[in-house]
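Example 9 (inverse folding). The structure is encoded as follows.
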């Protein structure tokens, strides 16, 4: 991606985060950058193209972090770190999380990719849990689709925590600990005694 394109993306993310999607147009972005709208249109014909580019940039950031965990030695402390890292990535692209439903309604390509990505994430989550089960960190399923439904609950928290939390106040990075705690404590009931011991040794409940 060229330098001008990079600047457009960086400026758009900043403006979207500060003001929300509905208030930012191509003209707003061009004015903030000090370039003509024609110059901006040379790189991005529509605002939707910018949003799409930002989405795939966010996905790439998360993919890199997940692959590092999946391809390495899977441990509970690394899962905790991954969860925290993903929350920070979401914060950097927080407009997307705040306007998640609107974006999915208006951007067919993003929605299609998100649905496909959900299947991949579900499989990755399943592989991580299998390692934890073998290592005695997490118990085996006791109910049909128990861990599938756990994944779905965690996904809902990930997708909608930002919009819910922002109702009461403007979010800061310090608030991400609440997101981390919510997700990690969702995992707690499935831990074995060995897993709980490791959980508390890592002071997860205080993250």
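The amino acid assigned to each position is listed next.
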């Amino acid at each position: 991606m060229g330098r001008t394109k990079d600047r457009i993306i960086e400026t758009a993310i900043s403006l979207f985060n500060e003001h929300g999607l509905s208030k930012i147009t191509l003209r707003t972005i061009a004015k903030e950058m000090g370039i003509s709208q024609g110059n901006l249109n040379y790189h991005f014909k529509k605002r939707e193209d910018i949003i799409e580019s930002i989405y795939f940039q966010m996905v790439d950031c998360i993919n890199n972090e997940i692959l590092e965990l999946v391809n390495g030695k899977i441990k509970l402390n690394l899962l905790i770190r991954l969860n925290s890292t993903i929350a920070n990535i979401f914060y950097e692209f927080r407009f997307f999380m705040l306007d998640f439903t609107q974006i999915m309604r208006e951007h067919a390509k993003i929605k299609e990719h998100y649905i496909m990505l959900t299947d991949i994430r579900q499989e990755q989550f399943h592989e991580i849990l299998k390692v934890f089960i073998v290592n005695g960190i997490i118990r085996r399923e006791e109910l049909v689709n128990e861990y599938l439904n756990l994944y779905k609950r965690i996904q809902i928290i990930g997708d909608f925590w930002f919009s819910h939390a922002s109702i009461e106040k403007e979010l800061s990075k310090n608030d991400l600990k609440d997101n981390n705690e919510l997700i990690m404590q969702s995992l707690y009931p499935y831990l074995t005694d060995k897993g709980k011991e490791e959980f508390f040794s890592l002071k997860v409940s205080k993250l």
